[in-house]
Every structure is written in C-alpha cells, then in structure tokens.
Design brief:
With about 110 residues, the chain is of the alpha+beta class. A two-stranded antiparallel sheet has the order 1-2. It starts with a helix and ends with a helix. About 50% of the residues lie in helices and about 15% in strands. It is elongated, with a radius of gyration of 17 Å. The chain has one domain. Strand 3 and strand 4 form a beta hairpin. The protein is built from four helices and four strands; from the N terminus they run H-E-E-H-E-E-H-H.
Length: about 110
C-alpha cells in the first residue's frame, strides 16, 4: 500500500472523530401551531465521508431520498485497517480505492 494512502486514511480517521452529523430541533420559522419545531443541522459529517457514502446509495421505494449502504462504524473499522497497512475487508478495499482515486485527481 502506498504511504500516501496510509497517511490519508489516518487524516480521515481523525476527521471522523471531530466531525459528526448532529441534528437539533429549533422553532419553526413559520409556525403552524404552538410548539411547532423543525429539524436543523448543527454539524455535518466530513465532506469526504458524504462523497464516499454517495457512491454507495440505493433507492428506497416510497422515499424521496436514497439511503446509503455505508455505515460510520464500518468506515472507521476500515480506516483503522488501512492505517495498520492491511486491506482485507470490503470496507477497507472500498476506502482504499476511494482514497487512491482522490489522490490521483489531486
């Protein structure tokens, strides 16, 4: 595995610790009733993670938004594997391909 891939995996792993999606309830801007609340994003997942998830979306019947097949826990496990210079799991392979394609375009 390329040293640049391992370095990128370490940086991505750190960003997963510091950046996480957080949704809160706030008062609705145009309330329709008493105590009308809406969801708002307080903090977002890392940009690279959102791009990675978008590559593995599936359509859900009856829902407007697609759902990703990627989970945060397995992504962290895959990144951990890559930082240890291993690439045995499916997640690690997907992440390795994602990182190396990103390094090529940079």
């Amino acid at each position: 595995m390329k040293p640049a891939t391992r370095k990128a995996a370490r940086c991505m792993l750190k960003s997963m610790d510091y950046e996480r999606l957080s949704v809160v309830l706030i008062s609705a801007p145009n309330p329709k009733h008493d105590d009308h609340m809406v969801r708002a994003t307080e903090t977002n997942n890392p940009t690279w993670y959102r791009l990675f998830c978008s590559q593995y979306e599936r359509i859900r019947p009856g829902y407007a938004k697609p759902r990703t097949l990627i989970t945060r826990k397995d992504t962290i496990r895959g990144l951990d594997e890559l930082t240890g210079n291993k690439c045995k799991s499916l997640y690690a392979q997907r992440l390795k391909d994602f990182i190396e394609s990103d390094l090529e375009t940079a």
